[in-house]
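Database export, one record per block. Field names are fixed; values are copied verbatim from the stored entry.
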Amino acid sequence: MNVSKQSVCIIGLGYVGLPLAVQSALKGYTVLGLENDTQKNELINSGKSPIKEEFLETNLPKVKLVATNDPSAIKQADIVIVCVPTPIDEMYMPDLEPVKTAAATIAANLKLGQLVVIESTINPGVCEEIVEPIFAKAGFIVGKDYELAHSPERINPGDPIWNVTNIPRVVGSFTKKGLARAVEFYEDIIDAKIMPMETIREAEAVKIVENSFRDINIAFVNELAKSFDRLGINITNVIKGASTKPYAFMAHWPSCGVGGHCIPVDPYYLIERAKASGFDHEFLKIARKINNSMPEYTVELMQDALNTIKLPLNGTTVGLLGISYKANVADLRESPSFQIIKHLKKHGANVITFDPHTPDKSSEKSLEDLLEKSTAIIIATDHAQFQAIEPTLFKKHDVKIIVDGKNCLDKLEIENNGILYKGIGR
């Protein structure tokens, strides 16, 4: 394959698609990006990343990447990769409309011989039952007119080590030829193992299994945190102790909630697809229920702590530190902070917020401003700036209670400064 003559069109230039586009360009591909957000396109075309991420900020200015909202760009590509979101609605039902729309757009602009790859997270069966029929309805036969493959995205926002350049991938396809082409492409752009799967349905299942595994284990420690809180046991110390076993234990940590686009979303895709086939994923549903309960549990901890010092939650100013779902990134997707805010307001609290990574979403301009106004604090995101706060600063601003939703502060030091501390199972 002559890489320099290959062209790639990536549909969706978000947290998944934009790093993939930049990496493909770095490896010598001609890259077009199809994105509906014109403001985002303008930034990308000027060499500026709309996402605060080191890999993008360093490498986007180095490459020639054309972002457009014109679907005819698809016709110019040898490889088309779908990186659109696959969200859930308020009832936790999977929404595959973005994938359907992308597939229909490709079918309307297909160039014969193209390799189409779905990277969006989907449940097993979507490529066979939804995507391929869209192309068939347009008159195209997979394996003859085009190839269809699936390689579930793997990305960890803010990770200084693992990114689009070096995370191993799996690939599945309808045909051997399609599989070979997809594997060849990913082996060319990624410096890691690319594992071919026997079927495209297996490839679809891999991502769901990865994130359901994490969701279940997080639910386990979250439930333990609730139990150990009543038993007077510090769960973080117990997990550290269990981690000394050199085999058969993997540490997961409790918190105020599970965020991001994958872990709190992907299990629902498997739950609903299996339900349609007559199987009930009881274990996955219980895990989701437990993890979804953690924002409310965090607010209950605050309410109990306020009652201890004879203050009501109703009318009290509670400062929320952190809005993004993860430390040191600006990613707001499925952030538990929004649910915490919802439950606080439901109980009549006056909620103020500060996040140094999302200042436009914060009600306060600085940490000092928030502390000055707050009677109580909830740590919802363990940003480095928050972990570095000296307990004396809380005392200076007469903060009476800290609910540490990430168990990231020094409990003893905070208590030594006369502040009531509550952690998650700590």
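Remark 1: The radius of gyration is 24 Å.
Remark 2: Residues 200-231 form the longest helix (32 residues).
End of record.
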